[in-house]
Amino acid sequence: MExxxxxxxxxxxRKFSAIMKYMGILAVVIFAFAYLKVNVFEALxxxxxxxxxxxxxxxxxxxxxxxxxxxxxxxxxxxxxxxxYFSAILAFVFGLLMSEQTNxxxxxxxxxxxxxxxxxxxxxxxxxxxxVYIFGIGNMVGLLALIIATLGFLARSYADSIDxxxxxxxxxxxxxxxxxxxxxxxxxxxEFIPSxxxxxxxxxxxxxxxxxxxxxxxxxxxxxxxxxxIRLFKYHEALSLIIIxxxxxxxxxxxxxxxxxxxx
Length: 264
What we know:
Layout: H1 2-36, H2 40-57, H3 66-98, H4 106-120, H5 124-135, H6 139-164, H7 167-175, H8 180-215, H9 222-231, H10 235-263
Helix pairs in contact: 3-6, 3-8, 4-6, 5-6, 6-8, 7-8, 8-9, 8-10, 9-10
Keywords: Cell membrane, Membrane, Transmembrane, Transmembrane helix, Transport
Pfam family, one: BPD_transp_1
Protein name: Phosphonate ABC transporter, permease PhnE
């Protein structure tokens, strides 16, 4: 009887604790709405006006300029390809410097992690805006912004994946007298390749979207044409580009998922 009553008390305490957590989250959300002065009901009432504006100004989509968009579409995809490729190479080097498994120098690891955190915590649009002042409007801005932002994300992801690799496997090679490079190429890299592929493909998906957004700040690609059409009130042409962008993203996700299955 005492055991059963003790279990009931524990269950009640867990339920009470869970309720208090949910109430705390709800209180934070309500406070956020109040602080931001967001009126949910006004937003809901505004939806009919938005749909009316969309239906009367954007539809139907105008694909008559599609041949002129093809180079911009290719440009956007190539941004993601080149940005992801160079980031993946650089991020692997930084990942090795950040990991305890491959870098015994603590202060070097800390310094590199601080540098990567700096890169990672600045949004890609901020990087693009800063680089515009250096290189002007053009493809170089978009490419460098993508590489910098992706490098910060991938280096952290690679380092965490390297740290998760069982130390005992690397220790066995060290105990057998293997050199640093033998441990790297025969112990670490074979174990790391699946994580490398998954993180790199995931970054490529993100970069397809980011490439289009970068275009809106003058970095080239399909985004700059979307921004131009909206500013010139050419909504029908803008909608056609938005549809193309959505199809690009969906196609990228499909191809990346097939690649993951193929690799597995």
